[in-house]
Write a structure and sequence with these properties.
alpha+beta; 10 strands
Length: 220
């Protein structure tokens, strides 16, 4: 499967980020990465009380935030190799196989309706537990990567990315939630090509994820 969404092409003559893109895509090809603890107290408590899966709930919150901003939806068109912006992106998340200590990559189609997304994600996870392969069949191109590490409350993490500079989507890692000074704090890392985003964009996404988690807690 190539895609589950449409896209629009980027006009390089008018794109405000053209100079930054040219510098980082063809020059240093570096990534921008930030790790921080974010306050998920309200959502963590509400999901526990309502017997909802916190990981799926925060997956929705993160996905909703990323879809608000074009810098996280930039990719290359397979047809002509030009830059484009997806209409929306889907999370590609992991299912852990305890018996083999391996994982499978599964995906959930984004829906701004939480209940529909929650149901779809749970189905993806259930089906993923049956897999014996790394990848679920037919993962679409309009995606971002996200991993959960529920065994460790980390301070930072780094995943070596392709040196081609062609991977532009965010790579998200979520750590173990721990109670610190009366608040439930969750480690969150984003790594993304510096060609499409800077520290400002990551910081905004982290702050909005905190607010989205509070908003979702109220709705549950």
């Amino acid at each position: 499967m190539e895609m589950t969404a449409g896209y629009k092409s980027i006009d390089m003559d008018t794109w405000p980020r053209k100079e930054c893109y040219d510098y980082y895509a063809t020059g240093s090809k570096c990534m921008c990465a930030i790790s921080a603890d974010i306050d998920v107290t309200d959502l963590y408590r509400k999901t526990a009380a309502s017997k909802k899966d916190f990981d799926v709930a925060i997956l929705y919150a993160i996905t909703a935030v990323l879809n608000r901003h074009e810098e996280f939806r930039v990719g290359y068109c397979k047809e002509n190799g030009r830059l484009m912006i997806w209409d929306y992106i889907n999370p590609v998340h992991r299912v852990f196989h305890e018996e083999s200590e391996t994982f499978s990559r599964v995906w959930t189609k984004y829906d701004n309706n939480f209940e529909k997304f929650y149901e779809a994600a749970q189905h993806s996870i259930t089906e993923g537990l049956k897999l014996k392969t790394v990848n679920q069949p037919e993962i679409p191109d309009n995606n971002f990567e996200i991993s959960f590490i529920p065994w460790l409350h980390f301070n930072a993490i780094n995943t070596k990315m392709s040196e081609s500079g062609k991977y532009l989507a965010p790579v998200i890692t979520v750590g173990k939630v721990e109670e610190i000074s009366g608040k439930f704090m969750m480690p969150l890392t984003m790594q993304i090509s510096h060609a499409v985003a800077d520290g400002f964009h990551i910081a905004r996404a982290f702050n909005e994820t905190t607010e989205e988690s509070k908003k979702l807690a109220v709705a549950l």
